[in-house]
Amino acid sequence: MGKLLYFFILLPLSWLPFSALYTLSYLLYFCLFYVFRYRKEIVFQNISKSFPEMDTNSHLQIAKDYYRHFADVIVEGIKNLNISEKSLKKRYRVINPEIANNFFEKNKSIILCAGHINNWEWWITHQNKALEHQAIGIGMPLTQKSLGAKINERRERMGMIVTDSLQYKAAIKTLEDRVFALLILGDQSPGSVKKSYWTTFLHQETAFTFGTEMIANTYNLPVIYYSVRKVKRGFYELELKILTEEPLSLPYGKLTEKYVSALEHDIINQPSQWIWSHKRWKKEVPNDLNSIKNEHQKHFNTRFRSN
Question: Residue 81's domain spans which residues?
């Protein structure tokens, strides 16, 4: 089923010009918002809890703007299957690549982290050409494995290595002495509440994956956050910001708090650009949260700060 969807629908659509795809986006927005009401309850609940100081009309406006943006992200994701390197360079500009490339010149690998704000698919494909480091991306496999495999093939066509949380160590090992930039989008709901880092995010107690902080400490890698701003439809600017050059010098949780703060700042500044239809707060806050936090910190300190 996945291959049929890819070859007979997604791939043919990816050859359409942007003008046609954005016309399709208008239709998609209308269907998602007005006809199918795609996850509208989740979207409105997430927005209202994240911006309790706003009134209902403001929540509604963010939701409508989000569905328009989400429709664009879908058609741009389809276009990603065939978009050229030249077009990506024009449409997805890194305004300060020297932040990352300076580490490359020092023969130092890095971690790049961000959230699902604006168009993340184009960056996955473009990263290996935009920066000097060999690009590696840690992703979550799609439920439809055959479709996921074809999409990853297209993501990798410009040199990106796509892996997952179970295989990234093997991917790093194959690079031998080559320096890399490991891409992590860490804003999705984590798998285990006990292995997560809990903090306040958008006025809510929230569990975050702890992978970035663990990997940074395991390999002693600098961590760079990147913000993506939509300049206009189909055009984006990416700005890099160093969160830490020395993760081993930071106390438990500090790096993750820096990431959460940067992500929250981006969402507040561009409220319609985040992925509100994701069930971000599906994990209930456990009754023994303080105990979980203490155990999580103890495990981290035993592994990385015992000396």
Answer: 2-282+289-304
